[in-house]
Write a structure and sequence with these properties.
The protein is built from four helices and ten strands, in the order E-E-E-E-E-H-E-H-E-E-H-E-E-H. The strands form two sheets. It has a six-stranded mixed β-sheet with strand order 1-2-3-4-6-5, with helices on one face. A four-stranded antiparallel β-sheet has the order 8-7-9-10, with helices on both faces. It starts with a strand and ends with a helix. By secondary structure, the protein is α+β, with helices and mostly antiparallel strands.
Length: about 220
């Protein structure tokens, strides 16, 4: 399932997605953006530890496993970004006093990793059949030394950029649900990157639709 996403203003690397890859989780998906690849698994709703129980909604835990070694501060920061985005879209109040666990495994990192995490998470939540108020996608923008905006940058492009921003965009109103920024940039550049990300999100949501349509047209 590969699709090349490009337009006159927004260019994204090739996408690939496959759902229900794993048998143990309640929902799973792999998501590929160029040479960046992530596997996601969702477990729950399930019983929650008393210490983590919330009386009026489900407890969502996000765990990111790097390709090698143990999770570091970078992974903890990414976990928080993914968790806040998922909590904003999931209808957690329908499953009070229960637990949801989202595990993200890095298979290959060639830039735009946080946006790939977000896209893999959304596809896995869809596969698990969990109730959501909207879908979401991740878009990463880099600003190079000449002030040009690069969407879905590679690791080499990220290294050479002076600013890096990742946005989570919702599917209903194209609003920004979460942002993660690094480097120096002006307010105008930030607004430009948000506009470019909102435009790019249309391509990603169309890919979601095409991917799911192809999957269920085979099973029906």
């Amino acid at each position: 399932m590969m699709e090349v996403c490009s337009s006159s203003n927004v260019t994204l690397r090739e996408f690939g997605c496959e759902q229900s890859l794993l048998s143990r989780p309640d929902g799973s998906a792999s998501f590929i953006q160029g040479d960046t690849s992530v596997m996601a698994g969702v477990y729950g709703p399930a019983e929650v530890k008393v210490s983590k129980e919330i009386y009026d909604r489900a407890t969502l835990e996000v765990l990111i496993q790097p390709k090698v070694g143990l999770p570091s501060v970078r992974e903890r920061s990414q976990e928080q970004c993914v968790r806040e985005t998922c909590e904003a879209s999931l209808l957690l109040s329908l499953h009070p006093r229960s637990s949801l666990t989202l595990i993200l495994q890095v298979l290959q990192d060639d830039g735009s990793l946080l946006s790939c995490f977000l896209n893999a998470a959304c596809m896995a939540l869809m596969d698990a059949g969990l109730p959501m108020s909207c879908l979401f996608c991740g878009v990463t923008c880099a600003i190079d030394t000449d002030g040009q905006i690069i969407t879905d940058p590679t690791a080499a492009q990220e290294k050479e950029s002076r600013a890096l921003m990742t946005f989570a965009i919702d599917s209903k109103e194209r609003r920004v649900m979460m942002s993660s920024t690094k480097g120096s940039f002006s307010v105008h550049e930030l607004q430009q990157c948000i506009a470019v990300s909102q435009k790019a999100s249309e391509k990603i949501f169309q890919f979601y639709r095409d991917s799911v349509r192809r999957r269920y047209s085979k099973t029906l």
